[in-house]
């Protein structure tokens, strides 16, 4: 059994059409049929039910697809890690962050690592939490900066810092002086992170508003903290953001009031693939936790 047999099988299992699968593989149908037949003969099991009208996976085929997908994903991870070990401390080191955590600290981290490892190309990406978790599990990222919760046996985490929440508003349009004034926002428009982009974070913001006795009127959504801040700055609504945002988005038009009621916090985590003994990752974690 060769890897190409498995890859051909997966393409056909996805397309369920010899015509479409052969076009995607840039081969004609007879060789594809022959490869699939060889695979079925070696396994001693029929993977597809096929006739002139349709192609379907058998129960054996469904199970085989699930296991082969995991196998090839793991093979990619092994390949990436082998390349990384072979490169030692040269090559590429990939760091991801979510937009609400980008700060001068991350810029200083890249500066520190570039100085310490001058032959390494440090790549920085803004990536949502769900995708970061997937990429870390597959070894496609070397270090991630995300918000809790993170539940994966394949990822190791360190608490970077715990952040409170603050309401942010346009001072020219909204008059708030103390935390007790927050209930005045119950009739105001809110700008939130997109629910599909950050579902846990979105629910947490709803919980905060409920603690102040209202359901927010969410009209605008974004998947980027800078966009949210700009919308608030331009008078298109108010928002609730991590307090740490004030460091990098301190505009004269904006007012911030920290929300202490309910004692709700958000944990920012440094995440790496579990059992990864990368010298660079250890140096990065040490720098951020200093």
Automatic annotation (TrEMBL):
SUPFAM superfamilies (UniProt xref): Periplasmic binding protein-like II, Winged helix' DNA-binding domain
Family per record: Belongs to the LysR transcriptional regulatory family.
PANTHER family: LYSR FAMILY TRANSCRIPTIONAL REGULATOR, TRANSCRIPTIONAL DUAL REGULATOR HCAR-RELATED
Pfam families xref list: HTH_1, LysR_substrate
Key words, A-Z: DNA-binding, Transcription, Transcription regulation
Keyword Transcription: yes
Protein name as catalogued: LysR family transcriptional regulator
Domain of life of the native organism: Bacteria
Domain HTH lysR-type: 1-58
Gene3D superfamilies hit by this protein: Periplasmic binding protein-like II (3.40.190.10), Winged helix-like DNA-binding domain superfamily/Winged helix DNA-binding domain (1.10.10.10)
Keyword DNA-binding carried by entry: yes
């Amino acid at each position: 059994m060769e890897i190409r047999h498995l890859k051909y099988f997966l393409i056909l299992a996805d397309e369920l059409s010899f015509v479409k699968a052969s076009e995607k593989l840039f081969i004609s149908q007879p060789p594809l049929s022959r490869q699939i037949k060889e695979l079925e003969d070696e396994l001693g099991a029929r993977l597809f039910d096929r006739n002139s009208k349709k192609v379907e996976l058998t129960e054996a085929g469904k199970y085989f697809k699930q296991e082969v997908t995991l196998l090839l994903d793991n093979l990619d991870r092994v390949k990436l890690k082998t390349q990384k070990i072979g490169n030692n401390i040269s090559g590429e080191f990939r760091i991801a962050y979510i937009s609400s955590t980008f700060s001068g600290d991350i810029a200083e981290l890249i500066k520190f690592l570039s100085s310490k490892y001058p032959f390494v190309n440090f790549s920085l990406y803004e990536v949502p939490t769900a995708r970061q978790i997937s990429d870390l599990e597959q070894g496609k990222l070397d270090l991630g900066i995300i918000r809790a919760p993170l539940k994966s046996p394949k990822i190791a985490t360190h608490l970077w810092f715990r952040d409170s929440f603050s309401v942010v508003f346009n001072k020219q349009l909204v008059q708030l002086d103390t935390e007790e004034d927050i209930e005045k926002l119950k009739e105001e428009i809110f700008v939130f992170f997109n629910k599909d982009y950050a579902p846990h974070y979105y629910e947490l913001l709803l919980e905060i508003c409920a603690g102040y006795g209202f359901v927010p009127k969410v009209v605008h959504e974004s998947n980027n903290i800078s966009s949210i801040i700009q919308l608030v700055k331009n008078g298109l609504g108010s928002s609730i953001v991590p307090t740490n945002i004030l460091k990098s988005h301190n505009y004269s038009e904006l007012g911030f009031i920290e929300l202490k009621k309910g004692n709700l916090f958000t944990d920012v985590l440094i995440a790496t693939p579990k059992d990864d003994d990368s010298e660079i990752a250890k140096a990065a974690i040490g720098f951020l936790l200093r």
